[in-house]
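**User:** Once you have settled down, spend some time on the protein underneath, comparing sequence with structure tokens, and judge whether sequence predicts the tokens.
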Amino acid sequence: MKPTQLPLFASRPLDRAATLPARPANHGAAWLLADRIARLLREPVDVHLTDNAWTMVSFKRLHGRVRFRLHHMFSAANDDVVRALAGFTGRNRRAHGRAIDDYIRRNRDLIRAAPPRLHEQLSERGRVHDLGEIFDRLNSEHFDGVLDARIGWGRRIRGGRRHSIKMGVYLHDQKLIRIHPALDDERVPRYFVELVVFHEMLHQAVPPTTSRDGRRVVHGRDFRAREKRFPGYERARAWEKQNLHLLLRHRP
């Protein structure tokens, strides 16, 4: 039996304007890219092309298949980049990640900015804690007043007991901080709410980076170091450890 031959693809970068789909939802381009990677890995591959402005490359193995989520810029990738994508699933991720990073940098103009979203209505003042006042004080004392973000309490949603809770979230594209309403409780001390707000503010001051192996790093070394220098950090973490059950049992 003759060995399977790879299709012939140009080794030089392609003309992006001529080859890239107008929109990322191009199933033919995704199928072709999956086939190219599968021939290298010798295992089934699925590719979903996205317009994600933050994560360019991710993959997971599920039910005997390698499932990639790739920015649509990779639909025009040459052989070297496709080999890097295939190699990225193996042990030598760092070297292949550098090749992928170089490709992303050369094609950064293809990353579309996220469309503007309508501002959702947020309430800064809760029944117990005033997030607006906390944000303004922390911004002045720890960020020289330069941070620009909206902040408010998340919606109160009825439901059963939780097994985990996300205290807060920062949405980069909206410059929005949303804090879980379970923290707006007289049993939750202000110093703990302040640490949660400070943590989310840090996401704007120390934005995510991309590691050498292509992973998106949200809580890097600098981020963790600055967070631990926050006054009362240990006290707040100790309270969280001892009282997490209060937050999990929270009712609207």
User: Anything to note?
Assistant: The chain has two domains: 16-110, 131-248.
